[in-house]
Amino acid sequence: GDSVTQMEGPVTLSEEAFLTINCTYTATGYPSLFWYVQYPGEGLQLLLKATKADDKGSNKGFEATYRKETTSFHLEKGSVQVSDSAVYFCALRRQGGGKLIFGQGTELSVKP
Amino acid sequence: GAVVSQHPSWVICKSGTSVKIECRSLDFQATTMFWYRQFPKQSLMLMATSNEGSKATYEQGVEKDKFLINHASLTLSTLTVTSAHPEDSSFYICSASWGGTGANVLTFGAGSRLTVL
What backbone phi and psi angles, to 5 degrees, belong to B88? Predict the structure, then answer.
């Protein structure tokens, strides 16, 4: 079945460091791919998305490119801030809608 | 933008009682809503898919008599945890689909933290 695998956390970085959180997926067809962020005690917020191969989603300095050949959707940010500390979830959704399938989440902690 | 409101945001109840959690789409009609459960430091587990006017579709392993889902209107879905026990303590999150048939965007509520004593 469809699945999403993320790199394990927690990831601890200093402020202004470069961030990469790896995400790979297994799915038939051409799913849409998402990154969601969850701040402490809150629900999920959509961070960015990509709906087809080679699309790049971007928001708030975060980027991720839909790589069909490597079935990946790695999240990157050039310079993280303390306020980026949160749990990040990679997810996919099949063509035509339906449920989201989440990765296990990666906790990011950014220190001043 | 699309907003999903969940209520209550946190609730504490005694073992054996029932708790209802509401999920409302505030500025759009949600034909489909999803209910997730999240354990501490873990990912979200889909519990059920709720379609307006029909019975919810439960994921394997989720007790439908334990977790009652009602989607009576296009803007409201409710999850009732019946005869709650401490092991039901968790973070429950709903999401709603918007944007038309096969829509690709899901908006999440802020979640409801249930603690059963």
Answer: -85, -10
